[in-house]
Amino acid sequence: MTNRIESPSQDTLSANIFSLALPELAAMAKKLRRHIITMTATAGSGHPGGSLSAADIITALYFKIMRYDPHNPRWDDRDRFILSKGHAAPVLYAALAESGYFPVEELNTLRKAGSRLQGHADRNLTPGVEMSSGSLGQGLSFATGTALAVRLDHRDSRIYVLLSDGECEEGQTWEAALSAGQFKLDNLTAVVDRNQQQLDGWTRDIMDTEPLAGKWRAFGWNTIETDGHNFKKILAAFEKAKTVKGKPTVIIAHTIKGKGVSFMENNPDFHGKAPTAEEAERALKELE
Amino acid sequence: MAAPNSPVTEVATREAYGRTLVELGKQNKDIVVLDADLSRSTMTYLFAREFPERFFDCGLEEQNMIGIAAGLAAAGKTVFASTFAVFAACRCFDQLRMCLSQPKLNVKMVATHSGITVGEDGTSHQAIEDLALYCALPGFTVVVPADAIEAVEAVKTAAATPGPFYIRLSRPKTPLVYSEGYRFTLGKAVTLKQGRDATVIATGIMVAKALEAAKRLTGEGIDCRVINIHTLNPLDEEAIVKAASETGVIVVAEEHLAQGGLGSRVAPVVAREKPVPMRFINLKDHYALSGSSSELLQKHGLTAEEIARAVKEAIQAKAIPRG
């Protein structure tokens, strides 16, 4: 079941190599969600909740929006995806495997000794991982630096970075937001996975970041709010971001933590806990 | 090599840095420089003036600056990022670990205003823990130039060597130890003066003081070796073991806290390979206060006199038979 993809010629690689239609995107997202359940259950640990909430956003990027070549992961002209919320590594690994960076079978090695698939993403181990993450609040800074480099080199690559909403409590996120605005990085798009939950509970109860959109706007960003589980709307937001000049865009994607598995949805227990074998079986049934 | 008879010239290592950046910028278009609102003090403004499109002032966002540096490096740039040593080490430790050390990215942290010689600004600005922090990061090359000439060499070497670097520079003008034409080898200690009775291993501004101490000791009939360890990581263990074996006494001198600095890098090597009496000239377990550089060095015993005294004390300890 290893995914082998025709290696595209880099001269002609101007768009996403899959460019899936809406129903296919939905099917792919379901596939990624199944991987997330199986991987974390097999590993016996991990963060399924925030991986499931981001599955549709990641599917849209890897199977419709981004330009990349899985056979040449460090291709200079690629678009970049940076996972700032590093604990959602399972959904990134699932997308990378399904897009051909490494065999799908390797997903079952997650978090095991000797595996390339670390508990949190590692840029030197896993093909397709742009940056190591796991300590929150740092990905937007890295994305800002990458966006500057790409602009210096006159490349038209676009930089995408996924933040958790809990991450918007980190001071460095706002340092980076200020600087990306200052540097007018219109090749940079941040997505906030607004699932409203963090490890200790609802973000509004722990450290309320509302009005979140207003904050980004005040920091000089083009700000779009959308339903993070509706492909039509997600794609429209990404397309809109491409047209904005002179400022970066943030997409606040309203999502549900644990999305797709009834007993995981909005359940903070599954922020950092893997499903048991029995729970995994139930979850996979729901994702058929 | 050493220029013992020429008149003492003083140049600030940060000035040498600023000038070298411009030179490197002309040679290599992939060199990008970042600063955090201190470019006039770190001297990166010289690069900014010459190559404004490749200079980014990150404002008072030191942590963000590290991430930006990492992003630029991952896209193929050779990045120099500068601020004061206190901010470059203490404020950004997690960012250094997560964004530079672990992914091994090609970023050169060049920090100025290190140690107590920053002087009048006082405790908050005196980075005396920075070497401990940077030496704790696997894969980070840590260099402390002894003078402006070595600073030029270290900066050029860093630009040509992949991976994360920390280069520690000073605010005030300091005496030249080397002459033009000196060639620096990363990770290789420099024996500046041969000697048989004892060895002073020094780094940074303490190298000049170690040479001065050795000169004084010569007058007292003590033949003292002086070694400059400019690279703290990776450490030249061979030179240390050789000095311990041949001279039987090691004194380590540095402008840093006792914990985690050069002394704590050298001591385990001596203990493991060739135990000999050791003495340490450094800052003890407290912070310094405001004052001029020279007042503070005097007050905290970072002087040629204290080095000479420590050498004599250690030689006495060597003379006492063990048992």
Structural descriptors:
heterodimer; A: 288 residues; alpha/beta; Rossmann fold; five-stranded parallel beta sheet; two-stranded antiparallel ribbon; 7 strands; B: 323 residues; 2 domains; seven-stranded mixed beta sheet; five-stranded mixed beta sheet; 41% helix; globular
Summarize it:
The complex is a heterodimer of chains A (288) and B (323). Chain A is of the alpha/beta class and 288 residues long.
Molecular structure report:
The complex is a heterodimer of chains A (288) and B (323). With 288 residues, chain A is α/β, with parallel strands linked by helices. Chain A has one domain: Thiamin diphosphate (ThDP)-binding fold, Pyr/PP domains (Rossmann fold), CATH 3.40.50.970. In chain A, 38% of the residues lie in helices and 11% in strands. Chain A is built from 10 helices and 7 strands. A 5-stranded parallel β-sheet of chain A has the order 1-2-3-7-6, sandwiched between helices. In chain A, β2, α6 and β3 (188-194) form a beta-alpha-beta unit. In chain A, α1 (22-43) crosses α4 (89-98) and α3 (55-65) packs across α9. The longest helix of chain A has 22 residues, at 22-43. The mean pLDDT of chain A is 95. Chain B is an alpha/beta fold and 323 residues long. Helices cover 41% and strands 20% of the residues of chain B. Chain B contains 13 helices and 14 strands. In chain B, α11 links the parallel β13 (250-257) and β14. Classes of the chains: A alpha/beta (288), B alpha/beta (323). Chain A binds chain B through residues 76, 122-124, 130-135, 138-150, 152-153, 171-172, 175-176, 178-179, 182-183, and chain B through 32, 53-54, 56, 58-59, 61, 63-77, 94-95, 97-99, 102-104.
